[in-house]
Amino acid sequence: MTTPMTVPTARTGPTPRTAIPRFKTRGPKAWARRAPLLPALVFMIAVTQLPFVATLVISFFDWNALYPNDRHFTGVSNYSAVATDPALRDSVVTTAVLTAAVVIASVVLGLLLALLLDRSFPGRGVVRTMLIAPFLLVPVAAALLWKHVLYNPEYGLFNGAITWVAKLFGDTTPPQPDWISSMPKIAVETALVWQWTPFMMLILLAGLQSRSMDMIEAARLDGASNWQIFRYMTLPHLRRYLELGVLLGSIYIVQNFDAVFTITSGGLGTANLPYTIYQTFYQAHEYGQASAAGVLVVIGSIAIATFALRVVSSLFREEASRS
Amino acid sequence: MTSTAVVALPPAARRARRKGAALGLLAWLVGIVFVLPVLWMVLTSLHSETDAATNPPSLAASLTLDAYRNFFGAGGGASPWPALINSATASIVSTLLVLVLATPAAYALSIRPVKKWTDVLFFFLSTKMLPVVAGLLPIYLFAKNIGMLDNIWLLVILYTSMNLPIAVWMMQSFLSDVPVSIIEAAQIDGARLPTILARVVGPIAGPGIAATALICFIFSWNEMLFARVLTSVVAQTAPVFLTGFITSQGLFLAQVCAASIVISLPVLAAGFAAQDKLVQGLSLGAVK
Predict the structure, then answer these.
(1) Residue A23 lies in a domain
(2) To 10 degrees, the CA torsion angle through A301, A306, A307, A310?
């Protein structure tokens, strides 16, 4: 599932926590220092790194679980099969579109909400709590809520509301769209945006609240308008937090399985990579190909992840130098 | 952006105030829009099945707890208790394991740091960045070979590995908040490590450790891909039960709502309890 990677920016300058004098860092003393770390480290390597090595090995074998005796080494043929499989290529595009749409929409909405919540008004705590609620539903429950309770064409809340409003205007045959079949991708994306906007809002709100108020007051006294303060002070300050939101959001949403599985069962062109791999191995039993696809997903993720680690590490260094 | 009301300029102040009130109202409106589906789900779960499936929706229908009774097996369906107990086992035991592994690790990364402690920290983080799905197959094959399929302890181990990096990062940042001078003072007073941990580090980092535990609990409780692939009848968790419950019982709207609420309740409770530290946990300690 995971693989170690070099973190080019992890080397921070002088470590901020060296106040306890280090006497000897070699020999038994150093091992005494390392000892508390080892159980966690060994556990992580065993549970997350070894399976990936196994995935890599299996990806070079022709292995279908339905024909276990046919298992043999095939070199890179799984990779060429995966690369030329239209379903898999579609799911790469679907994953990219789904992730980008959900992340961008929820970051923009989250920024607007964070700006609204950064001011004080009566009941701010209540509104904050209401906004977080969608994020705290079990993802499967949230997906079921959208599929059955909101989108359902016969008795879902959306069509119910349309009927109700139409009745007010005397229309007895209001339109009753089948939301999921007519716009499957948007249906999945909307449900995800609803769940992820609170996450983005929380990160950006933390960013807004870490601004220096003195500087903003000073700018205001110098005659800067609200827009100028936002454009030239708030937004640059928020850049890090926006990057962090985008990257963490991408990491979590690229892996989304629950919403796709529940709302459309991967049908109607909504199958993303995790769903396709799940299907390749769970239903088609093509172990070799599923592994090759898994390896490709990992390679793709390393690109995002390296960038993500760089952002986290720069925030981390900032925090470290502040304290 | 809070504009300080300038007392000397009543018209401007009044304008700012009116604008503030309008924006406050807008915030309330957006909040209500976001929470509305959840409230609607609660209301639907309290309706009878016939009232739940009307178009237009029946807002004022009489309330009943039938959906909850049916969900808990009064209607003759499968009882959700085994799945809920499995979820609780997997989430609670894995969270405890995470704390047992992460606390000493975080200690060795903050209070008495090893050499190159940032590299170790980023190794933990990097394991969180890559898709779970890539490791699914070997884990499945491994579990199948040693007879661990449909066994809740397999999920306990996997959820521990899923949450350990988050916990190490969070705890590292909480333990860094403990002033070194206090620890040194305690050492000079002759306190040994267990005493220091219990009397000095614990009280300061305690709330953070509690929040870490709650967040690990939430992630384990929510997890579905592993649970879906690696468990079937005996060890199925609540989210798996929830999806299976739909297909096996046909659509009962009120019951779906009741089931979703019951299964989300532990997460809602844990989430609101950890509200203040939620961002720090979810951003892996990068945002404080």
Answers:
(1) no
(2) 150
Distances (CA, A) of B264 to A134, A165, B268: 11, 31, 6
Structure tokens at A4: 């170690």
Q: Which of B38, B130, B267 is facing A2, going by the closest CB pair?
A: B130
Residue A185's domain comprises: 77-322
Has residue A241 been placed in a domain?
Answer: yes
Surface-to-core class of residue B87, CB atoms within 10 Å of its CB (0-12 exposed, 13-18 middle, 19+ buried): buried
- The pair of structure tokens assigned to A298 is 């990992």
Question: Tokens at residue B23, please?
Answer: 């924006």
Whether the CB-CB separation of A22 and B152 falls below 8 Å is answered with: no
State ipTM: 0.84
Of B240, B137, B46, residue with least CA distance to A57: B137
CATH number at residue A84: 1.10.3720.10
Long-range contacts of A213-216 (CB under 8 A, 24+ apart): A216/B1
Give yes or no for A140 touching B (CB within 8 A). Answer: yes
A35 is a domain residue: no
CA angle at residue B53 from B33 to B49, to 5 degrees?
115
Count the domains in chain A: 1
Decide if A189 is inside a domain.
yes
What is each CA distance from B212 to B97, B168, B172, B280, B284, in whole angstroms? Answer: 12, 9, 11, 9, 10
Give the pairing type, strands A61-62 and A72-73: antiparallel
From residue A266, alpha-carbon distances to A192, B244, B247 in Å are: 15, 16, 16
Both tokens assigned to A281: 């191995």
Of B171, B172, B183, B114, whose CA–CA distance to A18 is shortest?
B114
Where does the pLDDT of residue A320 fall: very low under 50, low under 70, confident under 90, or very high at 90 and above?
low
How confident is the model at residue B8, as a pLDDT? 57
Chain B residue with Cα closest to A55:
B138
pLDDT at B122 (0 to 100): 81
A10 contacts B121? CB cut-off 8 A: yes
Query: Which tokens go with A300?
Result: 């793709």
Chain-chain contact of B114 with A33 (C-beta, under 8 angstroms) = yes
Per-residue pLDDT at A19 exceeds 70: no
Tell me the domains of chain B and their CATH numbers.
10-74 (no CATH), 81-282 (1.10.3720.10)
Quick check: A18 contacting B, CB < 8 Å? yes
Please report the number of interchain residue pairs, chain A to chain B, with beta-carbon separation below 8 angstroms: 373
